[in-house]
Amino acid sequence: QEQLVESGGGLVQPGGSLRLACAASGFTFSSYAMSWSRQAPGKERERVARITSTGRFTDYAESVEGRFTISRDNAENLVFLQMNKLKPEDTAVYYCSAAPFFSTGLALQKYWGQGTQVTVST
Question: What is the C-alpha to C-alpha distance for residues 41 and 62, in angstroms, rounded to an integer?
């Protein structure tokens, strides 16, 4: 059974850092591009970062460019999102997802995790 499980969310002060992890199982992880997206209350889900199956190429939303870093470990079936200089507007549920192609739109991702809450507040 294909599964993605996120972890690492929590409460952090503005300016702080968090590292999210997503553990994959049940499919050939190394063949899939991976994405991190987020959804805040009352807002649409937006992709914040994506990475190719090999990890060679990455792409970021303008809102997180320079602050967030996506990476993956294909030997351990893990994808990470390092989030630095966090802002209150980064507060959202963060999801990882998998798709066969790097260019696949968010709505067509094949597998989704259940999400992890990130709250940036004093």
Answer: 20
41/59 Cα distance (integer angstroms) = 24
State how far the alpha carbon of 21 is from the alpha carbons of 42, 43, 44, 51, in Å. 25, 23, 22, 14
- Summarised one tens digit per residue, pLDDT across range 85-97 is 999 999 999 999 9
Name which of 33, 17, 23, 21 is nearest 2 in CA terms: 23
CA distance 85 to 64: 10
pLDDT tens readout for residues 91-118: 999 999 999 999 999 999 999 999 999 9
The C-alpha atoms of residue 11 and residue 17 are separated, in whole angstroms, by 10
Which are the contacts of 109, defined by CB distance < 8 A and separation ≥ 6?
A: 35, 97, 98, 99
